[in-house]
Every structure is written in C-alpha cells, then in structure tokens.
Write a structure and sequence with these properties.
This is Esterase. InterPro entries: AB_hydrolase_fold, Mycobacterial_A85_antigen. The chain folds into three domains: 172 residues, no CATH class; 242 residues, Alpha/Beta hydrolase fold, catalytic domain (Rossmann fold, 3-Layer(aba) Sandwich), CATH 3.40.50; 97 residues, no CATH class. Helix content is 25%, strand content 21%. The protein is built from twelve helices and 23 strands. Strands 2, 3, 5, 6, 7, 8, 9 and 11 form an eight-stranded antiparallel β-sheet that branches. Strands 12-13-15-14-18-19-22-23 form an eight-stranded mixed β-sheet, with helices on both faces. Helix 5 packs across helix 9. The longest helix has 17 residues. It is globular.
Length: 580
Amino acid sequence: MTSQRIFSCLLAFSVLLAGCQENTDQPGSGPGFSIALPDTGQDTTYDGRLILMLSTNEEAEPRFQISDGLQTQLAYGMDVEGWAAGASLDFATEAFGYPIESMQDIPAGEYYVQALLHKYETFERADGHTVKMPMDRGEGQQWNRAPGNLYSTPQKISFDPSDDETFTITLDQEIPPIKTPEDTEYVKHIKIRSELLSDFWGRDMYLGAHVLLPEGWDYHPDAKYPLAIFHGHFPADFGGWRTTPPDTSEPCVFSARFGVECYNHVVQQEAYDFYKMWTGPDFPRVIAIEVQHANPFYDDSYAVNSENLGPYGDAITYELIPYIEEQFRGIGEGWARFTYGGSTGGWEALAVQVKYPKEYNGCYAACPDPIDFRAYCLINLYKDKNAYFLDSQFKRNERPGHRDSLGFVDATVKDMNYRELVLGTKSRSGQQFDIWEAVYSPVGSDGYPQRIWDKKTGVIDPEVAEYWRENYDLAYIMKRDWATIGPDLKGKIAIYCGDMDNYYLNNAVYLTEAMLEATTDPYYDGEVDYGDRAEHCWNGDQTQPNAISRLRYHRMFIPKWTASVAERAPSGADLTSWRY
C-alpha cells in the first residue's frame, strides 16, 4: 500500500470520527459516497463542514433546495479537518441527516446528488480559545453561496439503501467572489477596520455600511444631519432604492407568500417611488445607513456585545457610527440618531436602544425576534423542560416552528434545529436558532457557545437560560432596570407585530407590552400595535397589505421620527440646518 493511500485511509477515519460530533451513533451500511478534492498541486489542507445532498427535483441544484419547509430535499453533514487537496474520503454513512436522519431510511429511487465543502478558518481569540469557523466572504454567511466553497456538479444516481454501491463525487467547482457594489451620487459604501473586533478575534475584522446621502448634501455644506440606522440581515447594497422605473421587460415572478402576480415589478416600483420621495421637496433630510456586520457565526451580529461574537455593540456604536457621522457631516450626538428594522433588525433596533439608552433617540422595532424569553417563539425558556416537545405525560406532540396566516404549520422547532445540525455543529450552521445561541450564550469550555438545549433531544439547560435572561431578555432587562434606564427610554420605544406572525413572535410582544404599560416614574409613553391576521414582518402600517408595507421601512419611519424628535431633543439642539 502506498504512503498516499495510507494517508487517505487514516484521513477518512479521522474525518469519520469528526462527523460523529453531536450526531447519532447508528450503524453504517448500504451505499457509500467517496468524495474527492481536486489536486491543486500545492500542500493545501481544508477544515470545514462537508454536506452531502440528494434531491428528486431537477429544477435547481440540491444546494439551493435545503429548507425548513415541506419542499425540502435531503442533506447530511460531517465535520472535516486537515483534508488534503487531491485526497478522497468516504462520507460517513452514519452522518446525521435532515429531514430523514439516517441514509438507511432514504427510499430507493432516482436522485440528483451533490456535495459541498463549507470552509472553516482557525481563529485564536483574545479569550484564549482557538475555534474553527467560516469567515464571511462578502455573501453574508450563506453556506451555499459563500465564495471559495467547493462543490460538485450535480449527478443523477439510482440510490437503493439495500445496495452496497459506492458513488464517486468530485468537488470540481468553486463559488466565485462577490462583486463589490460601486458608489453612486447618493449611495456610498464604507468599510473600516474595527480595533475592538480585531483584538477579540485575533485578526483584522471589519465593519461596513451602505450610506444613503440626503438630497442636497453637496449643496448645503453647512448642514449637519441626523442618522437613521436601519438594522437587518446582511444587505448586498442599500435596499429598497432604485433610480430608474421598473424593468417590465423582466418576466413576472409570482409571490406565493403574498399571492401577488409580478411581485418583482411591485418591488422595483416601490424602490423607485422611494427614490422619487427621497429626492423630492418634502422628505426629511437625514443620512440613512444599513450596517454590514457579518461575522463567523451569521450574516449579522445582533448589534450587541457577546461572549462568543465579541463586542459588536460597542464597535458599531463607538467606532462605525462616529466614523460615518464624521465622514458625511452627521450631527454626531445621541439625540440625533434613531434605529429601525424588522425581524432580526427589529430585535436589534430595540436592543441597542435598551443597551445604549443615551446613544440613540428612538427605535421602531417591527416583528422583532423574541424580546421576552418566556415566549421564545412557542417556548418558555424558564419553565419548559424541552424545546421540541410539548409537556405531556403520555403524548409526544412536537412544538410548531412556522405557520402561515391561517395557522397551517409546515415546520416544527425540531425540524428547524435538525436542519441546522446538518449544516454545522457547535452553533456553526449560520442559521436562526444557532445565531441566537451564539449571541446570547456564555462560552463553553471548548470555545464554542454553550447550548441552550441539547440539539438532538431538545432538553433545555436552565443555567444557560438564566444567563440569557440576565443579559439578553429585553423585556426582563427593561423591567429590572427601569428605575435607571426608564427616564432615557421614555417616548423612544415603538413595537409592531402581526398577530399571525409566522414564527409566533407576537407572543413575546404581548408580554412586553404588558410590562411597558405597567411602567411608572416614568410611564414608557411609546407605542405597541398589531396587524390583524398579518404575517411576518408587519411593521405598523394599517393602510397597506404586508406585501407593500414591508417595502416601506425608510419612508415610514424617517418622517415619523423627524416629526417627533423635537419632543426629546436637548435645549439648543440643531433642528434646523438639515430642514430645507
């Protein structure tokens, strides 16, 4: 046996062991898959998550068909370390899968098979831990679109779990780099090295933003402007902005979610209408920004300090925002900044207002991620024993995770977490439950986030839940600290949510509203509103359907804030230079 063959065998064995982490230990038999890396001619090794996918649908590559919904196809995952270029390994047949956990249970039939390697890098953090994580490469932490990831050309196979055939797959493709957006007259793109984050992660780390300048910015050199901070998922460019009319030559795209024909044209029209409003005579003159803070765990950081992610809250508040204000003539004071956003952005808008009450002067939080962990979607983290199953002596009903506006459930909490476990162990899937865990949890002894619950069984860890409560349960923190922060939050909190939110986020809003309404000395003096039968992400517009209002964050909240800011501005504040 050659030395290369011995090395490949040892490597396959070590990778197989790595693939068992957090996975079930089921005996392996039946068909096998041999995955080959291309030979680069260099002494290159790879760490990462190897994902094997099988699909009966030929309309798209399997890598684009793994989802929480009913149409998902099959995926299996395993960790790899030190995989040498040019070497092959046998995919672990006992690797954990979604939605069918074991390959032995896959029905016999014709499948399109594809493999993808989500690359990890090594970080030596300031807390003394060394971790292996996927670095964002400009795509916003999307495993199936991350530049540099290797994947195979899909191939059709006949799969039968009773056969012992071995299928050979070569990772013969590499995802290309993302094109950087170009500056325009109104939209500028900035990127800064964060000293705080670089110190934490042990390498250069950056923050960015897309900056929308107000009409007349070039012609009013003496004007200084308030800052409108839109929080949300990773924006490729400034969202909802288009300087040309809709391209009606593009084929119509039907929105199944909203039941709207040619929804792509509707989206373009709304973006163009916003451009006309922004540049028109009556729209408030402010600087609007969308923050880019993708990190090794997710497409954004949740804009707060975290044991696992590092001091993103401080970095955004004290490094990025002052830099933007200095570069583009922002007023540069807390009274002249406000935040808004939906879903993840809704949680962030409220969180930064609560965590930095003097640095921001208003938040508009639409359909926020759970802001009271007694309603962590449909889980009470402080009383429930299991996240996946409803409490019962004899029944074993799974806890719903996603519904439509009529209450039809197409995914459970267990489904959603099992998909994540396939995509990455140790909170590294880049998906929703894992990023909540990464942001809110303390660091474990291995350097990765402590699990809020066992990813396989759903059993909740009450000690971790208590840490979450004290540090990130926004409703609890506001109630606990109201005597201190209440005076700085008066009049600054607005929350909106549909009462049929797809992820049951309205439940936490109900609890938070009750807490806010009970405040005294001072009374919170804000706003909480609900959309009747409205889904995720309703944002407070009672006059428009959700399909439209979700496209109007900037035009809704910027005028609303500028109309009320004088009530909370300090004496002598500049309320005039930017009003022209």
